[in-house]
Task: inverse folding
């Protein structure tokens, strides 16, 4: 049996700064095993081969966890979406000792389930107003680390957990990496609103310049409707979601737009996250990860040395 990765992680993580770890056994991933005391984690589980986009999400998630979640981090925020399960996988791979004194805070129903099913300790942001690290997905990220979030209607809790965190990190696949927000995520900025105020907010957003039809003929400004459910999407907080696209000239100033939308009465939270991220990790199709850092620099994590097997799989 190979040496358990946990021991290596222990020694590596006992530093003040988040280390750039290289695990001894990169294939170590306990994907479905809950973390229970006394139970030995498997030391080597082959990583499943994934379609390119999924593999890219996994690369980004693994790189972000390896870089930002260290042993001394005890309160950890877990975001929402399809990339975040890989974050939990990688956290689990740090082993029982690393996780036994940690508490994990969810940004919504989905991440709450993820935490519980992984056997990790669940907490909430009303118990822990200060979080060490929160890792979350995004719908699109621009050159300056501003992002659109709320594709899963979780932006209110996501923003609270992002703000509460000493370090907030984004994980995404290559499709989310843009120069200007709204380039690939064209359906609009997700805006959580008090249900009784939605019609008034829609009117105000229209006056602000959000079109009801996009140039490509697709629907623009709209109340988000449920799929397989009659009526609107209702957020985890009991609110409605409006999707509001804006012309590119307005999207070039996401901070200004955020402030204007947030000032509309009835708006609870806006899915524009500006000046918040420490870094964004984008998994690429070629098995590398592109990291965009707060200082504006880009770093290519070529072949992701921590997990070389992944490169071969993509
Ligand atoms: O903001 C979100 C939910 O409100 C998600 O983080 C965002 O939609 C990204 O999801 P995915 O990882 O599935 O691309």
Result:
């Amino acid at each position: 049996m190979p040496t358990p990765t946990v021991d290596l992680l222990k020694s590596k993580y006992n530093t003040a700064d988040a280390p750039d770890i290289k695990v001894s056994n990169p294939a170590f991933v306990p994907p479905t095993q809950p973390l229970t005391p006394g139970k030995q984690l498997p030391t080597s589980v082959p990583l499943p081969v994934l379609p390119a986009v999924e593999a890219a999400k996994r690369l980004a998630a693994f790189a972000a966890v390896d870089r930002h979640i260290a042993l001394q981090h005890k309160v950890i925020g877990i975001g929402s979406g399809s990339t975040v399960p890989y974050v939990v996988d990688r956290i689990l791979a740090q082993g029982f000792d690393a996780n036994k004194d940690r508490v994990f805070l969810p940004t919504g129903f989905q991440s709450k389930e993820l935490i519980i099913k992984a056997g990790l300790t669940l907490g909430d942001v009303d118990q822990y107003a200060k979080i060490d690290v929160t890792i979350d997905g995004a719908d699109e990220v621009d050159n300056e680390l501003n992002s659109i979030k709320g594709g899963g209607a979780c932006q209110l809790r996501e923003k609270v957990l992002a703000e509460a965190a000493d370090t907030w990190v984004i994980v995404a696949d290559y499709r989310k990496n843009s120069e200007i927000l709204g380039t690939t995520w064209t359906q609009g900025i997700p805006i959580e609103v008090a249900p009784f105020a939605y019609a008034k907010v829609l009117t105000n957003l229209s006056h602000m310049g959000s079109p009801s039809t996009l140039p490509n003929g697709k629907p623009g400004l709209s109340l988000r409707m449920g799929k397989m459910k009659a009526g609107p999407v209702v957020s985890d907080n009991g609110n409605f979601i409006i999707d509001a696209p804006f012309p590119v000239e307005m999207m070039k100033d996401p901070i200004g737009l955020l402030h204007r939308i947030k000032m509309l009465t009835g708006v609870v939270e806006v899915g524009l996250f500006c000046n918040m991220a420490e870094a964004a990790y984008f998994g690429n199709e070629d098995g590398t990860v592109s990291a965009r850092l707060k200082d504006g620099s880009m770093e290519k994590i070529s072949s992701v040395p921590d997990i070389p097997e992944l490169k071969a799989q993509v």
Notes: The chain has two domains: 5-178+275-313, 189-271. The pocket of ribulose-5-phosphate is lined by residues 79-83, 136-139, 149-155, 158 (CB under 6 Å). The first helix runs from residue 5 to 13. The chain is about 30% helix and 20% strand.
